[in-house]
Write a structure and sequence with these properties.
The chain is α/β, with parallel strands linked by helices. Pfam families: ABC_membrane, ABC_tran.
């Protein structure tokens, strides 16, 4: 992991040179590409960014908008041309939100000093002040890893607030408004990018990449990208007067997000020290050597064959016994037990409720799966064998010492008492230190994974030094218990050496009076390694206890609550759901059974094969409605039924397996295109290719290596990744389809494509869709407006649009769907089908064809 961007080539060394005094940034005839061995992604880019200006970059999905922002940040190599810059500080907000495991305030302010007045101003500008007031702990609320305890819109606004709070000269925003509802999006845009917005008031230049061309009216400069080439740039009025629509750019070379596959490098194990081989010179074979030596002294070379044979047999038996023990432990016992523990751990995490996942530090779970499982797989069996071996050796050495010097026998029990007292004191301390050593690594793992996920943001803000210092501090904290453990191990060796030295002195004194050379020699040889074996015995015993502690910590996950509740054992029929009729009956849901409800007294019916659109402000409870159907939140009261089967009586795994979900953030897995479309299930390639053809990704996939191409090596934009998820839904077609803001980050053409695919491929299916783009819901059968966790409105789109004071109508007006337009649709249907442009309030000239689905226009006309 590098906190610094890759070292630039000689051509790139001009990146950061002084630009014209009137411009913050000047890109001059530059080509950019992710791989120097492949064709460039962006071609012949010529752009200037003056101070205190708003530049909007627009274009179709995959046209190169995000790549251009990454190039400005220095993340994409410059293959030709130059970047001249007067900017020394840049802030960046990505469409893929990066949130750390901490409070809302920490995510916005850290690592910068806290400025109360500026902080409150930023909260107001991002409309977060209203959301924070609804939290019990206000801005001290811990939002979990990746912000799991907040909605998608809230996470996005936290990231926007972080970019503004940093007070940089230049701020880059990559499609940050797509996850927000209409009202919040308008508020945030006006308060941040408007003529009286916070950025203009403080002289900050902003670059906003978006597919929403209605925002061009507010820009100082507009840029249109097509397939990595700037086709238009200049005043927004010039671009608005032209047709800016473009295809989904399925064959585009650009990529909005690039995942870097880190090779799995496994360091070869280091052979154990030769000290063990050196120390195996004592034992029962030495006693046989003593007898051999005494016999040889009396009769030189007498019975030589007997002694050699017995010596060889003893060595072979010892080696065979040791090999059998290793085989038994490493090949039979360890795989079975570790697999069982790993399966148990995976099962507990998979069955954990949503509130546990949002409130638990990801480093804790990572520690269990990595370090604790490593201790069980590798350290525990090795320590068990070494402890057994050293215990046997210590016991035999004590016997040999007594055999060699009979008068030493009474000292052995006394020495055992002394050693027991020492190890009792030592174990009590070392056990705690070993546990501290393990637990202190969880924050380090968390910080490492968070840094890895936010490398682009960290480098953009220039926070490398701060994160290095934080990493060094966490690393030092994690090493302190290890250092103290090393110190007390040295202390143990010193004390044991002193004890053995006392025994050696007594043995030497006895040797003066005892004339039996052989026994005394065996005793002295045994005594030489007795001290080291004794200390190793205690160390291995302590290490084995620590490894057993790893088992205890994994077993402690037994306390993790299971989302499965009593009474959820009724398995429905194999063809359930056959129709897809969904009914909510006075349903109140919450994340925990004893927490306040997030949805209250919700009653609605979604007939089989109908389409329900859900809209509302960010954080109003829309996603909780989908989570309730998936049983990822708890039902406090009421009931939800699908085809008259209560979801409270069905196993949750079965419910989720029978429902198709397309989330707001595209979910792709490491593997091939085939694996991502089929979900690792066996399926005919023809079906997979047909699905890709329907979402217009067939040519792009075929030109990139076909279905066996690795997903992380394919240049996919955010919109194209969403199309992959749509293809997955097509091949896994179910009677119920849940959509959570699936088109919030795509352009109008891709939106139209996705809506058309959903209409044709899921005809007859029950569809519940959450959308901030009201235009995508106008051909739905029913609309539900959620406000504050309650059903605010419910009815057909036309009825809600015509009702005065309707929230849905307000949302529609914010997107330019005025009532007078709807009243004139019947008379002007033919003209609307030709896509003539009309003036939409203050949102600029846009085509009604882009706002209202063609099927709805045809129905009303």
């Amino acid at each position: 992991m590098e906190l610094q961007p890759p070292k630039p080539s000689d051509r790139e060394l001009l990146h950061g040179s002084v630009a014209a005094e009137s411009d913050l940034l000047h890109i001059h005839q530059a080509d950019f590409g992710w791989d120097r061995n492949l064709p460039a992604t962006l071609l012949n880019i010529e752009l200037k960014f003056p101070p205190s200006s708003l530049t909007i970059i627009t274009g179709a999905v995959g046209s190169g908008k995000s790549t251009l922002l990454q190039a400005i940040l220095g993340e994409v190599p410059c293959m030709k041309g130059f970047i001249y810059s007067n900017v020394c500080e840049i802030s960046f907000c990505s469409t893929k939100v990066w949130i750390r495991n901490g409070s809302i305030r920490d995510n916005i302010c850290q690592p910068l000093p806290f400025d109360e007045q500026w902080y409150r101003t930023v909260l107001y500008s991002t409309a977060l002040d209203q959301d924070i007031e609804s939290f019990a702990l206000k801005d001290h609320t811990v939002i979990g890893s990746n912000g799991m305890a907040t909605s998608g819109g809230q996470r996005q606004r936290i990231a926007i607030a972080r970019a503004i709070y940093a007070r940089k000269q230049l701020a880059l925003f990559d499609d940050v408004l797509g996850a927000l509802d209409a009202k919040t999006s308008e508020q945030v845009f006006q308060r941040i990018f408007g003529t009286q917005g916070i950025l203009r008031r403080h002289g900050v230049a902003a670059i906003l990449a978006t597919h929403d061309q209605k925002l061009l009216a507010f820009a100082d400069n507009a840029v249109l990208l097509r397939n990595g080439v700037i086709t238009e740039q200049g005043p927004p009025q010039l671009l608005q007067s032209r047709d800016l629509s473009d295809g989904p750019a399925a064959n585009s070379r650009s990529t909005d997000e690039r995942q870097v596959a880190l090779p799995n490098q496994a360091a070869p194990g280091i052979a154990s020290s030769n000290a063990d081989d050196m120390n195996r010179k004592t034992g029962d074979m030495n006693l046989w050597v003593q007898w051999w030596g005494e016999e040889n002294a009396r009769t030189p070379f007498g019975r030589l064959a007997l002694y050699i044979s017995v010596y060889a047999v003893l060595a072979a038996v010892g080696a065979a016994l040791w090999a059998w023990c290793m085989w038994l432990v490493f090949c039979r016992i360890v795989p079975a037990s570790s697999n069982r523990l790993h399966d148990y751990l995976v099962m507990k995490v998979n069955k954990a409720p949503l509130h546990w996942l949002t409130s638990t530090d990801s480093g804790i779970a990572l520690n269990r799966f990595s370090q604790d499982m490593t201790l069980i797989d590798r350290s525990l069996p090795a320590d068990f064998l070494k402890t057994s071996r050293n215990f046997t050796q210590c016991l035999m050495n004590a016997v040999f010492i007594c055999v060699g010097a009979k008068y030493m026998a009474p000292l052995i029990p006394l020495s055992a008492i002394v050693v027991y007292s020492i190890q009792k004191f030592y174990l009590r301390t070392s056990r705690q230190l070993r546990h501290l050593d393990l637990e202190s690594k969880s924050p380090l793992y968390t910080q490492f994974t968070e840094t890895l996920n936010g490398l682009v943001t960290i480098r953009a803000f220039g926070w490398q030094d701060s994160f290095r210092e934080e990493h060094q501090e966490l690393l030092q904290r994690s090493q302190r218990p290890y250092y103290m453990l090393f110190v007390i191990q040295r202390w143990l060796i010193l004390v044991l050496d002193l004890c053995v030295a006392g025994i050696a002195i007594l043995l030497v004194i006895l040797a003066v009076f005892v004339r039996e050379i052989g026994p005394i020699g065996v005793s002295l040889i045994s005594l030489i390694t007795f001290s080291q074996q004794l200390s190793e015995l205690i160390n291995f015993w302590t290490s084995m206890e620590t490894s057993i502690g790893a088992v205890t910590r994994i077993r402690s996950f037994q306390k993790v609550p299971s989302e499965d509740l009593p009474g959820e054992e009724a398995v429905p029929l194999a063809d359930w759901p056959s129709a897809g009729h969904i009914a909510f009956q006075n349903v109140s849901v919450c994340y925990e059974l004893d927490s306040p409800p997030v949805l209250q007294q919700l009653t609605l019916t979604v007939p089989a094969g109908s389409k329900l659109g859900v809209c509302g402000r960010s954080g109003s409870g829309k996603s909780s409605l989908l989570l309730a159907i998936l049983r990822m939140v708890e039902i406090q009261s009421g009931d939800i039924t699908i085809d008259a089967v209560s979801l409270q009586s069905c196993p949750r795994d079965i419910i989720r397996s029978q429902v198709t979900v397309i989330p707001q953030e595209p979910v792709l897995f490491r593997g091939t295109i085939r694996d991502n479309v089929t979900g690792f299930s066996p399926m005919n390639d023809e079906n997979v290719l047909n699905a890709l053809q329907k979402v217009q990704l067939y040519d792009h996939v075929q030109s990139s290596g076909g279905l066996d191409a690795k997903i992380d090596q394919l240049p996919l934009s955010a919109g194209q990744r969403q199309l992959i998820c749509l293809a997955r839904a097509i091949v896994k077609k179910r009677k119920i389809l849940l959509l959570d803001e699936v088109t919030s980050r795509v352009d109008n053409e891709t939106d139209s494509l996705m809506q058309e695919v959903i209409r044709t491929e899921f005809a007859g299916c029950t569809i519940i869709a959450i959308a901030h783009r009201v235009s995508t819901l106008l051909d739905y059968d029913q609309i539900a407006v959620i406000d504050g966790g309650k059903m605010a409105e419910y009815g057909t789109p036309s009825a809600l649009l015509e009702a005065s004071g309707s929230l849905f109508r307000q949302f529609a007006c914010r997107y330019g769907l005025q009532r007078k337009m709807l009243e004139g649709i019947r008379d002007t249907g033919s003209r609307l089908r030709e896509g003539n442009s009309v003036l939409m309030g203050n949102m600029g000239a846009v085509s009604l064809k882009e706002l209202i689905p063609t099927s709805l226009i045809q129905r009303w006309a």
